[in-house]
Amino acid sequence: MTTHTPPAAPASAGDLNPTVSAAGWRWGVLYGPAVYGVSAAAAALPDAAWHLHTRGPGVAWLLTAYAASVGVGAVTAGRLVDLRGSRPVLLTAAASLTVGALVCAVAPTLPAVVIGRVLLAVGSGALMATALAGVAQLAGRRQKALAAFGACLAGFSATAPLAGAVAAHGSWRAAMVLPVLSLAAVPLCWSLTARSRRRDPVDWLGAGLLAAVAAGLLLTVQTAAQQAAWAR
């Protein structure tokens, strides 16, 4: 007797795409290394100060510049994701992150390293905004995506001091560019991004004013800290 095997059901669109949880992990790996920009880099400040021939208050700019620029990059990129889509922002952020890391790797002076850190931070901030937007746009069981995303960020935050110490043991420059690890997640997140057909104008003036205000506030705080340290 001949038996007939029923045909297999066609794969649904959801089976061909990464699960919601897996997408959360991908976005988390893209976002996570950004936290290394301050927590991990702090472990390398003594060696950086010695190699760059500067004092403690001056070398703190390596952290201050990153902290300010990552916020500006995130705010600006968040708006760009809305207007242009996540894929162009992902590419631009990866380019900024790469150039910033290269500058930090070869810069001979403190101002040059600070410039590299600014580029690095702008790229990291843009990747953070892209990852947050990607998680927010996930359909279906968003709770699982947020759980995976949060667990990934917790892991990066917990390992930041250790990662900085290990990297600084090899080179202080390696500790300064740890956020570049986000580039490893760019291919993983590529299929989760898209372009937008909106062509609304970008408020570059507002972004510039935001950067100027942030830089001015941090310059005031940093200058006050330097004067207090010299007065001791």
Q: Can you walk me through this structure?
A:
It is a single chain. With 232 residues, this protein is mainly α. It has one domain: MFS general substrate transporter like domains (Growth Hormone, Chain: A). It is built from eleven helices and no strands.
Topology (elements, then pairings):
Elements: H1 13-16, H2 20-31, H3 45-51, H4 56-59, H5 61-84, H6 86-106, H7 110-136, H8 142-170, H9 172-176, H10 186-190, H11 204-231
Helix pairs in contact: 2-7, 2-8, 5-6, 5-7, 5-11, 6-7
Tags for this model:
232 residues; Growth Hormone, Chain: A; 0% strand
Q: Strand fraction band? A: under 5%
Please tally the β strands and state the result.
0
How many helices? 11
SSE string, helix = H, strand = E? HHHHHHHHHHH
Low-confidence parts, pLDDT < 50 over ≥5 residues? 1-17
Class of secondary structure makeup: mainly alpha
CATH architecture: Up-down Bundle
